[in-house]
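ok new one. same drill as before - C-alpha cells go in, u give me an amino acid for every spot. 440 of them this time. try not to just spam alanines like last time pls lmao
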C-alpha cells in the first residue's frame, strides 16, 4: 500500500471541503447529500438573491423543503456564496451548470467554459475538479483540461480531473441523489479512484468506467434512449388517433408483457433540461467524425413538432363547437414540464401558450407550483397563474391539460368545463362528461 495522498486523508477523516458550482436542480440536492454525510460544502452561484435566500435557510426548489435547507445551514456545514475566490478553500469543485443549445441546435458551452476559467484563477495543487453537466464525449479532456492547465498545473499530476454525470429526476419519490447509482470516469486511474472515494461519502453506489469519454457517453445514451422512444410513442399516438385507436389503451395492454417491453408515454412535447437537449450534443459531435445520427434527428423533429399537433387538436375541438381559435378563451393547465414540480425548463407548455396566442386566442394558465412566469432565454410570457373556480372554468371556451399535476381534481374540471383537450390522459378515470373530452 502506498502512502495516502492528502486528498485521501481528508476523505478518510471527513475533513474534505466540497465546492459546488451552480446551486440549481442538480447542485443543491448534491450539496444536501454531502452535508448529510457530515461534509462541509461551499455552494457557489452568481445569483445574489438565491445566495441570500439559501443562507437564510430557505429553499429555492419546491422539491427540497425549507426545513431541509435550514438544517443544512444550521449544521454549519453549508454556506452559499458568490465570492469565487473561496474556490481555493475547497478541496474538490463539482461543476453543476447548464449546458443548453444555441439557436442552431449546437452545444452552448459558455457556462462550462466560464466555470473553468473561474476555477483556473484559484486552482491549486491537489484540487479535484469534476464536471456533472451533461455534455458531448470529449468535453472534459478537450475543452476543460486546456483551460485548467493554462496556469501551469498539469491535470492528472498536479490536480485531478473527473467526469460524473448528474442523474437528477426532480419530484421522483422513489429515488434520490443518494440512492441513484453514479457513473464516474477520470483522466487517469488515480483521478477516477479519488473521485470515486469522494462521491462515496454521499452516494450509495458508484459505477466506475474506463475513461472520461465513457462516462460522458453513458449519460448521452440514457437521454438518447428516452428521446427516441418517446418520439416513437408520440408518432404512434398520431397514427392511432387517425385510426380511431386510443394509444393509452394500447400502451396499457402492451405493458402486461413481463419481458422485452418498457412503456413510454406520449405528451405535448419534451421538457426538462435533459431529453430535449442532450441528444443533440452527440449529433453535433458525431458530425465531426462524418457520422450522421438519423434516429436522433428524426426523434427530435417528431418531439419538437408535438406542440403544433396539440394546438391543431385544440383548433379541431373548437371547430366542433362552431368556434375558431382566434378570439377564443383558452386555459392551459400546468406550466411545469412534468407533474408536481416547479421546473419549467424546456416545458412544452411555454410553446403551447405562444402558439395559441399567435393564433389569436386569449390565453391564461394555472399551475399550483408556479404563481407567475419569469424571463427565460426564449420566453418572457409575463403571466400570472389564475385561480380555479367553477365560474372561472366555465368562462373558458377550452381547457387544455398540458401537465397532469396530481393537485387537480379532474372530475371537477370536466364537470365545469365546456371543452377539455387532454394531452396527458389525465382524465382517463373520469366517467361522466366524456363527450367534452378530446385526447391530444
Amino acid at each position: 500500500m502506498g502512502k495516502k495522498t492528502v486528498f485521501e486523508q481528508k476523505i478518510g477523516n471527513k475533513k474534505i471541503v466540497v465546492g459546488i458550482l451552480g446551486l440549481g436542480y442538480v447542485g443543491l440536492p448534491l450539496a444536501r447529500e454531502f452535508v448529510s454525510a457530515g461534509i462541509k460544502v461551499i455552494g457557489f452561484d452568481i445569483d445574489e438573491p438565491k445566495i441570500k435566500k439559501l443562507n437564510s435557510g430557505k429553499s429555492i426548489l419546491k422539491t427540497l423543503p425549507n426545513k431541509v435547507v435550514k438544517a443544512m445551514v444550521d449544521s454549519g456545514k453549508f454556506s452559499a456564496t458568490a465570492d469565487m475566490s473561496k474556490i481555493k478553500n475547497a478541496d474538490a469543485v463539482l461543476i453543476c451548470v447548464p449546458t443548453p443549445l444555441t439557436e442552431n441546435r449546437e452545444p452552448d458551452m459558455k457556462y462550462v467554459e466560464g466555470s473553468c476559467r473561474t476555477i483556473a484563477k484559484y486552482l491549486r495543487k491537489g484540487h479535484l475538479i469534476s464536471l456533472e453537466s451533461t455534455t458531448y464525449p470529449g468535453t472534459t479532456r478537450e475543452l476543460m483540461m486546456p483551460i485548467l492547465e493554462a496556469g501551469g498545473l498539469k491535470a492528472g499530476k498536479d490536480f485531478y480531473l473527473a467526469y460524473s454525470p448528474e442523474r437528477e429526476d426532480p419530484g421522483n419519490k422513489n429515488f434520490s441523489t443518494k440512492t441513484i447509482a453514479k457513473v464516474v470516469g477520470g483522466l487517469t486511474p488515480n483521478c477516477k479512484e479519488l473521485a470515486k472515494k469522494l462521491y462515496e461519502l454521499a452516494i450509495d453506489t458508484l459505477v466506475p468506467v474506463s475513461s472520461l469519454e465513457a462516462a460522458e457517453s453513458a449519460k448521452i445514451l440514457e437521454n438518447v434512449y428516452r428521446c427516441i422512444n418517446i418520439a416513437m410513442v408520440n408518432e404512434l399516438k398520431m397514427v392511432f388517433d387517425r385510426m380511431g385507436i386510443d394509444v393509452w389503451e394500447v400502451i396499457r395492454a402492451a405493458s402486461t408483457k413481463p419481458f422485452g417491453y418498457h412503456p413510454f408515454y406520449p405528451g405535448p412535447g419534451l421538457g426538462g433540461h435533459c431529453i430535449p437537449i442532450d441528444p443533440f450534443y452527440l449529433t453535433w459531435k458525431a458530425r465531426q467524425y462524418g457520422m450522421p445520427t438519423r434516429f436522433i434527428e428524426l426523434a427530435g423533429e417528431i418531439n419538437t413538432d408535438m406542440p403544433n399537433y396539440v394546438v391543431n387538436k385544440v383548433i379541431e375541438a373548437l371547430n366542433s363547437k362552431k368556434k375558431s381559435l382566434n378570439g377564443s378563451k383558452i386555459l392551459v393547465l400546468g406550466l411545469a414540464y412534468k407533474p408536481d414540480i416547479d421546473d419549467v425548463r424546456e416545458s412544452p407548455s411555454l410553446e403551447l401558450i405562444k402558439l395559441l396566442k399567435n393564433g389569436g386566442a386569449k390565453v391564461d394558465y394555472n399551475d399550483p407550483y408556479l404563481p407567475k412566469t419569469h424571463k427565460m432565454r426564449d420566453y418572457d410570457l409575463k403571466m400570472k397563474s389564475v385561480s380555479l373556480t367553477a365560474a372561472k372554468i366555465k368562462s373558458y371556451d377550452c381547457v387544455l391539460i398540458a401537465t397532469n399535476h396530481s393537485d387537480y381534481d379532474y372530475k371537477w374540471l370536466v364537470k365545469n368545463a365546456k371543452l377539455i383537450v387532454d394531452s396527458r390522459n389525465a382524465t382517463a378515470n373520469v366517467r361522466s362528461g366524456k363527450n367534452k373530452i378530446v385526447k391530444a
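The chain has two domains: 6-210, 234-439. and btw Residues 212-243 form the longest helix (32 residues).
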